[in-house]
TrEMBL record:
Family matches, as Gene3D superfamilies: Clavaminate synthase-like
Keyword NAD: no
GO molecular function: 2-oxoglutarate-dependent dioxygenase activity; metal ion binding
Residues annotated as domain TauD/TfdA-like: 6-291
UniProt keywords, alphabetically: Dioxygenase, Iron, Metal-binding, Oxidoreductase
UniProt organism field: Mangrovimicrobium sediminis
Cofactor requirements of the protein: Fe(2+)
Protein name: TauD/TfdA family dioxygenase
Domain of life (superkingdom): Bacteria
Pfam families assigned to the protein according to its UniProt record, in alphabetical order: TauD
Record has Magnesium as a keyword: no
Protein family per UniProt: Belongs to the TfdA dioxygenase family.
Matching InterPro entries: TauD-like_sf, TauD/TfdA-like, TfdA_dioxygenase
């Protein structure tokens, strides 16, 4: 009988687990697969160590949690469009965006966010695998929406529970109305037109707080790609969003993943926010990410009635 070991990432974190023993044979065992699904549901982030570093192994691990979901943006690079649907490539290149935070230039930096916010159907979960890991930087940060909501000031938590937030694919930092680091400077914008094309594009709506099937409530909003509130894009709406976000940042507890050979990291995108902390622009960085479909991917288009099934 194959076995895996699941242990907490850290004593001071209420989320996250470290998993060992993830092999091909283990993933063929339905008991192991069920254990992994339960661990993700309970802990939100799984750091799997010493895993075979191949694309098909990444897909095999991913499909434990659900079928792969094709990425909604065709222009995003795929590992193999024909053989590996749902596996995208995130890599540095000549068109990479460069920012500066506290005087340090960084490439592949992305602020706190959840994936597919700009789409009515988010992905449920994802698996990350580092192909090229820079020596300087390149960490991936995770924070738990359950912990954030539980620790927020009750008055602000009550406000957050009433908000439905707008997002679209205009991801330019100079259009981001709140949530950028204090000492932030845009050095070089992304070399593509996707954001410009979506400046006035269709917005998806996602609740800032939603309720899981087990009754737990989750804080689930971010500044990245945020276009205001449903029915309200005024300055006052952004002031309200900034107030809620500042409180979330005040209380959030963060796990910073330092990539090691053999790592694959799984996270629940309906619960966990993540951040790419950036790396030295002189070093290459490449990540492969799967996109996993699920039943808890709440959201709706701004111009459509809210679905009855949304919690």
């Amino acid at each position: 009988m194959t076995t895996i070991k699941v242990a907490p990432l850290a004593e001071d974190l209420a989320f996250g687990a470290r998993v060992t023993g993830v092999t091909r044979d283990a993933l063929d065992d339905e008991n192991v697969r069920a254990q992994l699904r339960e661990a993700l549901d309970q802990r939100g982030v799984l750091v799997c160590r010493e895993v075979e570093q191949t694309s098909d192994m990444q897909v095999k691990l991913s499909t434990v949690f659900g079928p792969l979901k094709e990425h909604p943006v065709y222009a995003v690079d795929r590992a193999d469009r024909d053989k590996l649907p749902g596996v995208i490539v995130i890599a540095t290149g000549p068109g990479s965006c460069i920012v500066e935070i506290d005087g340090k230039p960084l490439v592949t930096w992305q602020p706190w966010h959840f994936d597919h916010a700009y789409n009515n159907e988010m992905m449920y979960a994802a698996v990350l695998r580092s192909i090229k890991t820079p020596k300087d930087g390149g960490r991936t940060a995770f924070t738990d929406g359950i912990q954030i909501l539980n620790d927020m000031d009750p008055a602000l938590r009550a406000k957050a529970e009433q908000l439905n937030v707008l997002y679209n694919l205009d991801l330019r930092y100079d259009r981001q109305r709140f949530g950028l680091p204090e000492n932030f400077r845009l050095v070089k914008e992304h070399d593509h037109t996707l954001s410009q094309e979506n400046e006035n594009g269709r917005c998806a709506v996602h609740p800032a707080v939603w309720t899981r099937p087990d009754g737990e409530k989750v804080f689930h909003m971010c500044p990245y790609g945020c276009r205001g509130l449903e029915g309200d894009r005024s300055d006052a709406a952004f002031e309200q969003l900034a107030e809620i976000w500042n409180e979330a940042q005040r209380v959030m507890k963060v796990y910073y993943h330092e990539w090691q050979p053999g790592d694959m990291v799984v996270w629940d995108n309906t619960r966990v926010l993540h951040e790419a902390t950036g790396s030295n622009p002189e070093e290459p960085r490449e990540i492969h990410r799967t996109t996993i479909k699920g039943d808890l991917c709440h959201g709706w288009w701004e111009d459509e009635a809210r679905a009855e099934t949304v919690a």
